[in-house]
Design goal:
heterodimer; A: 319 residues; mainly alpha; ABC transporter involved in vitamin B12 uptake, BtuC; B: 540 residues; Rossmann fold; six-stranded mixed β-sheet; globular
Chain lengths: 319, 540
């Protein structure tokens, strides 16, 4: 009982659950525990982790960012339009790749800046702002490309996402930076303080508006970086890139333990949440379930995770 | 109409009401006066069924009356009109009045709109409010809302109406209308209890007057026996028996106790003094003559329409300045303006000689200002986060490590640990514990610690001992004293007069957004302060 309680309270709970899930399903799931499959799993996990990191920042401030998937789509086509080797503006130039990536990051940052300003300066609710941003930006991505993919991307660009070890190092570096920023910087402390109590933070001299804006900008830039990996993996700029993963991103972050009410969250937790979601996704795919049944199972599991979290909080309060 | 017999009530052993007896005669208006904390609200809560008395009984129209619940009081024909009104701003006047008793279409669950409108119009006419019944309450002024409350009471056939500070939020014109209505209600034979700090109004409106002090009835009788002078002396006449730290007569630093941090400038000034004096509090008058002349905060002709009017004050180094006044006198509003949270239309604020008008709170904090707000849950603390994180919040910038500017955790931990010892936070609580698990007193010490860590030179403390137990109060007073001894300027807002008299060098009295009076320590006088704060009937 005591061990169970300690496990419940541990911040590694989701990691334990993931391992448990893996061990429990491995015997029944064909090809689950193979080297190839784990490589696949890692490849899909990395970009999801990158976006989820950004969302973690936003959730810590007590907001939400629904526009991340639309940022992935828009930056994917904008980047591809800039650097592809047939019709690209910089086709063939040695600057194509760096400029293309810079364009993607700038767009991600700009959309994040808009979200942040609308929320912090005009005091609009984050849900509405980012929802409408998502509608507008995803529509824009499709309209700009007339719903066509952009191919012929340079091999060196595709390698950023396509070669899993490259993507791994990019993601690991981002994770370390994000973790250090959250846990060791003044900005990180401010982020938590704003999420806990924005009024008290303002009175304590925290630049609340600036901190809020920066969280959305970070989220936008990280979504753009995830788009670099996704686009490289797909070897094409697609205006519907990431269309289906919004709930995965939010689900993974929240399963990890980041609170939707703000003030609570860690990069490591988000990693565990992403791992858990991806394991589930992958195993259900291997079991040959349809998209719809996968959705049903996922919904049930996320609900279960939420129940665990609320039970955990009750134990914490009782302790 | 109603009579109270030996009503007693205590909260956790502290008596709040002691055998209070009086009666409201049928059709009479009774004025109930007393200081904050005299027991008026508790008595009215017992009358309204929110609280049960520990002893004593009540008789309503000759029958024993012991409500267990507010709705029971309503059934007996009692209606309360509170200072903070209980209307739904989003609903119309008619809907508010008939919220619990809509006229219906016979047996059907539909509202009979016609009857509703007719009845509401009739009631509004009775209270003298010339507005269509469909008007949403959010469009009404404070005075009009009060009239709607009274109309609601009339709709419920109230026999006894209790008015709690009805005139505080009203304009002069609205007050005249309200008083005329009270006269009309009295003529109709409705009994009323009128609670107010505006003693002239009480004298004018009431047939009988009861004065409470410290939970006891200290005066009662027909109006003719009272003057406002007499009421004030009855309200005040109490010896000061509270615990206050003696100013300037005790060791500042017990051995082994952490020092309060202050700005380097002050520290340097202190080090110039002989060493032994850093451990003994110097006699203020003798030692601090040169420091008390230095102006830290200077406010000139500060005005914001409807909030404060032409406020000028100075705060010297080493001085504790008190700001007294009633609720709604504009004290907290002034503090918020000083800290840059609310705008001000005219006037200037200077901190250590340079103007800080129009600057952000962050900018002011960096120049040595600190502000402890009156509601620490909403504005003082992040209740869910750790004690250490709360304490560090203001001063994160001073605890970073070059070149990247990441936080220097060992230094931060040390600073937090020093400061929590300095404010005497209970030793058993851990730094990682969420603040919400602490008692009120310890929470307040965390807020103080947070501000002290930023090494402020001017502290604005709004109700620093609200919700703090007696022992911790004493410690908070000691801390405030120490801060002043060591050269900070402290501006304290408090509703407890003893607190200000015990702590301050000087007291300013505010009323209706203005400074009404200024008293130096040797002139401190409860009556004079109360009179400046109280005696203002707004009616011409």
């Amino acid at each position: 009982m005591a061990i169970l309680k300690r496990l419940m309270l541990s911040e590694y709970l989701v990691l334990f659950l993931s391992v448990l899930y893996f061990v429990a399903l491995a015997p029944f799931t064909p090809g689950f525990a193979t080297f190839d499959n784990c490589g696949n799993l890692l490849a899909t996990l990395l970009p999801l982790f990158v976006v989820a990191m950004g969302l973690t920042f936003v959730l810590i401030t007590g907001g939400i960012d629904l526009s991340v998937t639309s940022i992935i789509a828009l930056t994917s086509v904008a980047g591809a339009a800039t650097l592809n080797s047939s019709t690209g503006w910089l086709a063939g130039s040695s600057l194509a790749i760096p400029v293309g990536i810079a364009v993607m990051l700038l767009i991600g940052g700009a959309v994040g800046l808009w979200n942040g300003l609308a929320i912090a300066k005009f005091r609009m609710p984050p849900f509405i702002v980012t929802l409408t941003t998502m509608m507008f930006v995803s529509g824009l991505a499709i309209w700009l490309t007339q719903s066509k993919n952009i191919n012929h991307l340079p091999a060196a660009f595709n390698a950023l996402g396509g070669k899993t070890w490259v993507a791994f190092f990019i993601t690991a570096a981002l994770a370390v930076v994000a973790h250090v920023m959250l846990s060791r910087s003044r900005w990180g402390r401010w982020l938590y303080a704003v999420g806990h109590n924005a009024r008290a933070s303002l009175i304590s001299g925290v630049p609340v508006a600036g901190v809020t804006v920066s969280a959305y900008v970070a989220s936008g830039v990280l979504a753009a970086l995830a788009s670099v990996i996704y686009t490289g993996q797909a070897e094409t700029g697609s205006p519907v890139m990431g269309q289906r993963i919004l709930l995965d991103i939010i689900g993974a972050t929240v399963i990890g333990g980041t609170s939707l009410f703000g003030g609570k969250g860690k990069v490591l937790w988000t990693l565990f949440g992403v791992l858990f979601i991806k394991l589930m996704d992958n195993s259900l795919n291997l079991l040959d379930l349809s998209y719809f049944s996968i959705m049903m199972v996922k919904g049930g599991v996320i609900l279960f995770a939420a129940l665990m979290d609320s039970m955990r909080n009750q134990v914490l309060v009782a302790a | 109409m109603i009579s109270f017999h030996d009503i007693s009530k205590g909260f956790s052993g502290v008596p709040v009401l002691r055998r209070v007896s009086f009666a409201v005669a049928e059709g009479h208006t009774l004025g109930l006066v007393g200081e904050n904390g005299a027991g008026k609200s508790t008595l009215m809560n017992i009358l309204g069924g929110n609280l049960q008395p520990d002893g004593g009984s009540m008789l309503l129209a000759g029958q024993p009356y012991a409500p267990r619940h507010p709705t029971e009081a309503g059934r007996h024909g009692l209606a309360f009109i509170h200072q903070e009104l209980n209307l739904f701003a989003n609903l119309s006047i008619a809907e508010n009045i008939f919220l619990t008793a809509f006229p219906r279409w016979g047996p059907f669950p539909f509202i009979d709109r016609t009857t509703l409108r007719v009845q509401t119009a009739g009631l509004l006419q009775q209270v003298g409010l010339d507005l269509p019944p469909e008007t949403p309450v959010e469009r009404l002024s404070a005075g009009e809302r009060q009239l709607v409350e009274i109309a609601k009471a009339l709709s419920q056939n109230a026999r006894l109406i209790i008015l709690d500070e009805p005139s505080t939020s009203l304009s002069a014109r609205e007050t005249v209308i309200l008083f005329a209505l009270i006269d009309r209600l009295r003529a109709r034979g409705i009994s009323m209890i009128y609670i107010s700090h505006a003693l002239d109004d009480v004298l004018r409106l009431c047939d009988d007057i009861v004065v409470l002090r410290d939970g006891e009835r200290v005066g009662a009788g027909p109006r003719a026996q009272f003057t406002s002078e007499r009421m004030i002396s009855l309200m005040v006449g109490r010896s000061l028996n509270r615990l206050f730290p003696e100013r300037a007569s005790q060791p500042l630093h017990e051995p082994g106790r952490a020092e309060l941090p202050l700005s380097p400038k002050i520290r340097a000034a202190q080090q110039r003094r002989p060493t032994h004096q850093r451990f003994m509090v110097p006699m203020r008058v003798a030692e601090n003559v040169e420091t008390t002349q230095e102006v830290l905060l200077e406010v000139s002709h500060l005005s914001q329409p409807g909030i404060i009017r032409d406020i000028s004050l100075v705060l010297h180094r080493g001085e504790i300045l008190g700001l007294s006044g009633l609720m709604g006198a504009g004290r907290s509003e002034l503090a918020r303006i000083l800290f840059g949270l609310d705008p001000c239309a005219r006037g200037e604020i200077r901190l250590k000689g340079s103007s800080i008008s129009g600057r952000s709170p962050k900018w002011r904090i960096q120049r040595g200002l600190a502000f402890l707000t009156e509601n620490r849950r909403e504005e003082g603390l992040c209740m869910e986060s750790a004690i250490a994180d709360n304490i560090a919040l203001v001063s994160l910038g001073q605890h970073t490590r070059p070149p990247l500017g990441f936080l220097d955790f060992p230094k931060l931990r040390q600073a937090v640990s020093n400061i929590r010892n300095a404010v005497r936070l209970t030793a058993t609580v851990r730094d990682e514990q969420p603040v919400k698990t602490l008692s009120g007193g310890n929470q307040q010490k965390v807020v103080l610690a947070k501000w002290l860590l930023s090494q402020p030179e001017v502290l604005i403390l709004d109700e620093p001992t609200r919700g703090v137990d007696v022992g911790a109060k004493y410690e908070v007073y000691q801390l405030i004293n120490e801060l002043a001894e060591r050269g900070a300027g402290v501006l304290i807002i408090s509703s407890e007069l003893e607190e200000l008299i015990g702590l301050c060098d000087r007291i300013l009295v505010m009323g209706r957004g203005e400074i009404r009076d200024e008293l130096n320590r040797e002139e401190f006088n409860r009556e004079r302060i109360l009179r400046a704060a109280l005696c203002d009937s707004v009616t011409p």
